[in-house]
Amino acid sequence: MTEMSRVEEIVLTALRIATRAGRDAYLDDACGDRPDLREQVERLLAARAGGGDVLEGGSATEAVDAADPDATTAGEEAATRTREPEGGPTRESSGPGSDPAPLIDGKYTLVEAIGEGGMGTVYLARQSEPVRRMVALKLIKAGMDSRAVLARFEQERHALALMDHPNIARVFDAGMTPTGRPFFVMELVDGLPLGRFCDEGRLTPRERLELFVPICQAVQHAHQKGVVHRDLKPANILVTLVDARPVPKIIDFGVAKAIAGKLADEAPPTQFGAIVGTLEYMSPEQAGQLGEDVDTRADVYSLGVILYELLTGLRPIDAARLRRAALTEMIRIVREEEPSKPSTRLSGEASLPSLAALRQVEPRKLMALLRGELDWVVMKCLEKQRDRRYATANALARDIQRYLADEAVEARPPSAGYRLRKFIRRNRATATAAAAVAAALVLAAGVSVRFGLSEARQRAEAVELRDLADARAAAEIKARARAEAVTSFVTKALASVDPLQEGRQDATIAQAMTRAIAEIESGAFADDPETEAALKNTIGLILKNEGKYAQAAPLLEQSLATREALFQRDHPDVADVLNSLAALHSAQGRYEQAEPLLERAVAIFEKTRGPEHRNTAAVLSALAALYYNQGRFDEAEPLFRRARAIREKVLGPDDRDLALTLNDLALLYSAQERYAEAEPLMKRALAINERALGPDHPDVAASLNSLALMYDTQARYAQAEPLYVRALAICEKALGPDHPLVAVGLLNLGDLYRNLAQYDRAGPMLARALAIREKVHGPEHADVGVVLVNLARVYRQQGRLAEAEPLLRRTLAIDEKLLGPEHPEVAGDLNSLGVLYEAQKAYDEAEEAYRRSLAIREKAQGPDHPEVAATLGNLASLYRVQGREAEAEPLARRAVEIGRKAPDPTHPGLAASLATLAGVQNALGKAVEARQGFDQALAILRGRSPDGSPQLARTLWRSAVARMKGGPPTELQAARRELEEAVAMAAAILPPEHPDLKQYADELARCKAALAEQGEPEGR
After folding, report:
1. Residue 242: beta bridge partners?
2. CB-based contacts of 979: which residues, under 8 Å, 6+ apart?
3. Which of 277, 424, 557, 631 is the most buried (most CB within 10 A)?
């Protein structure tokens, strides 16, 4: 990343941070020991505050657009020039005539031409404002300003402006010269074309595949933005080194086609009969005379040609032959001729030794490497029928990643029947004649024909066995076919429902799955019980994720029964359903039913896959999460650790599944307040995701949220806020404003602002999160209840008690309906209602809510669970407020006893219970015992948070209030010191308007007044 792009990124993130403390903390972290960088950033922030210009968003990684011709003539090579390391490009003169002026738009000085295509020239240019940097400026050629060319140029500018991906060239600016020639400005990179980079670096086949994966992901990004490239080829993919890592960049969207809608309002349709793109890399449908019916699968075909060339050094269709042919023959070749498999093509290639040497492998090993799965992957891309190709560029990338991970790929060779149908379509007359001859032979010599067919079948089976390698591969192919059938069926079911006609998305999904179930039950898969079981498992999980637990349960149970009947009880397919059924029980809080299912799944995978397989790691993580949710941290930790060790060994140190395990383990540590152990794990998980996915991926946002939540829990609000802000920005940009992950970001940030008493910020964020979740999931989803609780807390803290109550009651109704009346979540809802009723002075209602919450928690979580202690403390506090101290004391004492039984004797929960008991004892006149309790609570909190925390400040205040009740001057002096410490601590952590800060300051003033009345000097 360039220096100026780093400045841009920091400024844009800082502008979204609401608090000055949060912004300062972010700048401290982002600028580090770079005062020059900090000065640049603050100057730009000040300019924004004063109404000055602000940098526009976007990264500034450097790339150059080596422009291709407009490709209205087929088969022509791009007239591009990349910057050569050994000799500079030709410098263009800036004199009068056809050459451009040296200064464009008053801020771009042309330095030299670095690329030329059929419609434009790319210049190295120096930008002077608002930032100083080197850029690539693309200017339309003189004499090339026809309406069609101008429209194509405008189309390229709009296409690039839509892109925001680390592997796609970015557009910074666009405009028109005084003479009416359009230009646009983009990133600059000193890169080599993909093929040349691989050959000059002698990259191995594996290294080439690893470089190919982010190219596919970048193409997928373009497709998600509604743009098809239509001219993908190695010359349009430049590779440079960033921190010694090769980074590919896709350039030249000059012939891009919008999937939906026009890219430029004035862009005319492609001229009838024009061939847009480069024929050697072009899909059959694009090569037709009518090129309008082109979708994302055309780019998948082009990626297949690029992959073919990366692996073999050859193209599927010989370039020299293509160029010698007439245009109509070129098109026929592209549309009709089936290319050879990569391994077959190499087998007869005279240059095989040199091609293999460029890949650092022996010729025979290169052919063996390609034979089988890599052949299948490439040929799946190159299918003439596009519905047989990979459906998306991401699907291709995932199959490459499976190959690199030594997993079975989804691609497989076409069946014999399919090949026969293809042969008949291509050779209908010959096939008809052959059929007649075959019939005559059957009549004349049936036995000989049968013998011949048997031999042919044996030969065919031998070939298949050689390609598949063994029976296990065949089984995996069968499983993949079943998975494809499941995916196709479910996708079709979802597409059958029109969300515009049938309401909410959750209703749409439920209706779609109901229709799918009805079709299954009608006998659609009666002759294929394996696929039916797989479908029930998939649909059951979809319904579980939508909170439709009652509908999901029978499907998952039926799937399990079918698979147990079809397979042995320890079959991996059985373990898959056990995992799904356990997830359903866990979501309902039925942990005792989920646990044996997961234990059995672990045993099955350990036996069938081995103790160090990725499937084993996955179910170990699920079992660990189950223990975690029950507060069984000592049992969860070794399982998380084992899953981590497996994934590090099997998947490598940079695998995203490993990042998930690191994050889970960190959350466990955070729940135990082992923050020093949790923080580096979360940061490592974040780094893995950023390296694998780039800085703007939703999974990166999830990692940022986890790290921010840990800081938030510690009241490190200034560090949490910028992370929450960045995570929310990523999700809004990548997923749109109404995605469920955007609701997560709004919920987290809104709750942080609630903790900071910034209710005017918190309320709208939580209200927006509520609207998103109601739209996505419907009004009765568990996720809706989570937002309702937090919004009710905001209202309660604002004193809007009447508005808070219906929200909490609605949450309680949702959870009782979904989870049952005795679920721990219901207990939490009742506890929140008790707090609200207590604030309303509705003490009878508060007591009833607390007592019901306590009964549920004791039954569901056991009598010694920390949440039982929390409810006991609330009930004890309620009794103390009512003057019922004698009833309060045994409850508070029991809460302390629970806290002392916990594995961690210094947990803040114990400190809270000690403070509650001390308050009750002080009201009973047990001053000595009360003082001991407060001192023990303060000692715990000081030990855990030497720099202070909101809980420590509040406990200091409570201790001081107890000292002030009729105490001697020495106690008032001690109270003054505690209050001064509480005020200073709160001022450092909380915003000035926070009500706690005022409460502590008011109490300090009363304490000083009491000392003055007794004639005691303040400083004594």
Report:
1. 245
2. 956, 957, 960, 1000, 1003, 1004, 1007
3. 277
Give me the active site residues, please.
231
Structure tokens at 242: 């960033």
Q: Take residue 1012 and report the two structure tokens written for it.
A: 């003055």
CA-CA distance, 631 to 589, in Å (whole number)? Answer: 13
The DSSP H or E segment spanning 226 is: none
For 412, 580, 810, 813, 851, the CA distances from 817, given in Å and listed in that order, are 47, 22, 11, 6, 20
Q: With contact defined as beta carbons under 8 Å apart, do 526 and 797 qualify? A: no
Q: Are 562 and 571 in contact (CB under 8 A)?
A: no
Question: In sequence order, which ranges of 520-632 are alpha helices (DSSP H)?
Answer: 529-545, 549-566, 572-587, 591-608, 614-629
Q: Which residues contact 280 (CB under 8 A, 6 or more apart)?
A: 75, 233, 305, 315, 317, 319, 322
Task: Name the one residue in this structure whose structure tokens are 């020039």.
Answer: 81
CB 168 within 8 A of CB 221: yes
| DSSP 8-state class, residue 178 | T
pLDDT at site 489 = 58
Question: Which residues have CB under 8 Å from 769's CB, separation 6+?
Answer: 743, 744, 746, 747, 750, 787
Q: Write the CA distances from 4 to 171, 676, 690, 696, integer angstroms.
A: 15, 34, 20, 18
End-to-end C-alpha distance for the chain, whole angstroms: 59
Its sign, for the CA torsion 848, 849, 854, 860, is positive
Angle, helix 3-15 to helix 20-31, in steps of 10 degrees: 160
- The secondary structure element, H or E, covering residue 103 is strand 103-104
Q: In sequence order, what are the residues at sequence separation of 6 or more whose Cβ sits closer than 8 angstroms to the Cβ of residue 645?
A: none
State the maximum Cα–Cα separation within the chain, in Å, rounded to a whole number. Answer: 129
Residue (of 276, 280, 328) closest to 308 by Cα position: 280
Place of tokens 């803290």: 797
Contact 278, 169 (CB under 8 A): no
Q: Beta strands 257-258 and 237-242: pairing type?
A: unpaired
Sign of torsion, CA 226 227 228 234? negative
Rounded to the nearest 10 degrees, how much is the dihedral formed by the CA atoms of 894, 897, 898, 899?
120
Sheet holding 237-242, edge to edge: 192-193, 237-242, 245-250
Strand partners, 137: 123, 185
Residue 347, CA distances (Å) to 193, 280, 352, 371 in order: 27, 21, 8, 11
> Rounded CA gap, 1010 and 910, in Å?
32
Q: What is the DSSP string of 801-846?
A: HHHHHHHHHHHHHHHHHHH-TT-HHHHHHHHHHHHHHHHTT-HHHH
Residue in 182, 179, 132, 194 with CA at minimum distance from that of residue 157:
182
- The residue among 212, 207, 220 whose CA lies nearest residue 237 is 212
**Cα gap 866→900, rounded to integer Å:** 10
Residue 176 phi/psi, 5-degree rounding, is -135, 135
Q: What is the pLDDT of residues 941-984, one digit of tens each?
A: 888 777 788 889 999 999 999 998 866 788 899 999 999 999 99
The structure tokens 């299954």 sit at 520
DSSP bridge pairs for 173: 185
Q: What is the DSSP letter of 677?
A: H
Whole-number percent of the chain with pLDDT over 70: 76
Distance of alpha carbon 437 from alpha carbon 449, whole angstroms: 12
- The model carries a pTM of 0.52
- What gap in Å lies between CA 873 and CA 916, rounded to an integer? 6
| CB contact set of 815 (below 8 Å; sequence gap of 6+) | 782, 785, 823, 825, 826, 829
Radius of gyration of the chain from its Cα atoms, rounded to whole angstroms: 34
Residue 585 near residue 625, CB atoms below 8 Å: no
Mean pLDDT of 621-650: 90
Cβ-based neighbours of 416, under 8 Å, separated by 6 or more: 460
Q: Of the ranges 348-357, 667-676, 961-970, which one carries the lowest mean pLDDT score?
A: 961-970
